[in-house]
Amino acid sequence: MASSSSLSFNLFMVALVLAISIRSTLAVFRPSPWKLAHATFYGDETASQTMGGACGYGNLFTNGYGTDTVALSSTLFNNGYACGACFQIKCVQSKACYANVPFTTVTATNLCPPNWSQDSNAGGWCNPPRVHFDMAKPAFMKIAWWKAGIIPVQYRRVPCVKKGGVRFSLQGNGYWLLVYVMNVGGGGDVYSMAVKGSKTGWITMSHNWGASYQAFASLGGQSLSFRITSYTTRETLTLWNVLPSNWRVGLTYNSNFNFH
Ligand SMILES: *[C@@H]1O[C@H](CO)[C@@H](O)[C@H](O)[C@H]1NC(C)=O
Known about the structure:
Strand order of the largest sheet: 13-12-9-10-11-8-7-14
Main location: secreted
Helix content: 10-25%
Structural class: mainly beta
Number of strands: 14
Largest sheet: 8 strands, antiparallel
Mean pLDDT: 92
Protein name: Expansin
Oligomer: single chain
Signal peptide: 1-27
Shape: elongated
Bound molecules: 2-acetamido-2-deoxy-beta-D-glucopyranose
Number of domains: 2
Subcellular location: Secreted, Cell wall; Membrane
Low-confidence stretches: 16-24
Distance between the termini: 45 Å
Order of helices and strands: HEEHEEEHEEEEEEEEE
Family: Belongs to the expansin family. Expansin A subfamily.
CATH topology of the largest domain: Barwin-like endoglucanases
């Protein structure tokens, strides 16, 4: 009797510890409160001017971002750490707002740089410390009449809903691996990253620009695994053998896992 009750107590403790550790690794990102800001748009209806932005996502159509994208003022951009973050934006307090549209959802793919030759309240909309959204024109046109030019908005950070796993686009050379991290779900953003070759230990990568991370190491001919930590939730994903040993720069590789 005594041994069976201590066994069930032990099983209970194991289950409890497992439940706590699973809970702590599955940090769920919840929407932030709505705040006030302003929005403008850039480019035209084709959104071709939004390609190749300051996050390094390249062609936004082939990489899954489409035209639901936004350039952030540097106050929000956070030196590229906000790349991939998702926002709901709604037009408020303006005759230009479409009354029947509650909000639209966009992913940060670019920086709206300051222009100090324009006043912060008359054209220099992205000058610090302004919180400003320069939306791709098709995204702006979902919430307001585009001829308004600038509109007051409410915005909030929301979890990014992405199809499929995190994607890795490779650049660099034999001694330097530069990885663009794309299609990130959940917080959408990346805090830190590490790479492991099949013949190496984990190598910490450093932030280069936008959503790219680099390792100064010779990793050719090895299958590569990545460990990525979300900026918003600090949750870490370990993606084993995402790249086969014959990986090449210039290619993009999909993993099977994502943040939520
Ligand atoms: C900054 O504003 C000035 C004045 O309107 C304009 O001529 C210039 O093209 C702007 N610079 C950039 C980089 O947009």
